[in-house]
């Protein structure tokens, strides 16, 4: 496994959080059946 610095992990967490909030915004614009699926994915990734 490659060495990962703490700052790199922090940067990844920030970008992950950013992409999750983007996904939520995108999910709101989707049709109902797709929206539920997207929100489920977002919630699942946030709870980790």
Description:
The structure is a single chain. The chain is mainly alpha-helical and 48 residues long. The protein has one domain (13-47). Helix content is 83%, strand content 0%. It is elongated. The protein starts with 5 loop residues before the first helix and ends with a helix. The mean pLDDT is 74.
What is this structure, in a nutshell?
This protein is an all-alpha fold. The protein has two helices and no strands.
Topology diagram in text:
Layout: H1 6-29, H2 32-47
Short key terms for the protein model shown above:
48 residues; mainly alpha; single chain; 2 helices
Shape annotation: elongated
SS element count, helices: 2
Secondary structural class: mainly alpha
**What's the structural domain tally?**
1
Distance between the termini: 21 Å
Low-confidence stretches: none
Largest β sheet strand count, sense and barrel closure: none
Order of helices and strands: HH
Count of distinct strands: 0
Q: Report Rg.
A: 14 Å
Helix content: over 70%
Average pLDDT confidence is: 74
Strand content: under 5%
């Amino acid at each position: 496994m490659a060495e990962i610095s703490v700052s790199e992990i922090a940067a990844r967490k920030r970008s992950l959080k950013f992409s999750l909030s983007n996904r939520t915004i995108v999910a709101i614009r989707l049709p109902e059946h797709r929206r539920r699926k997207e929100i489920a994915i977002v919630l699942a990734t946030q709870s980790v």
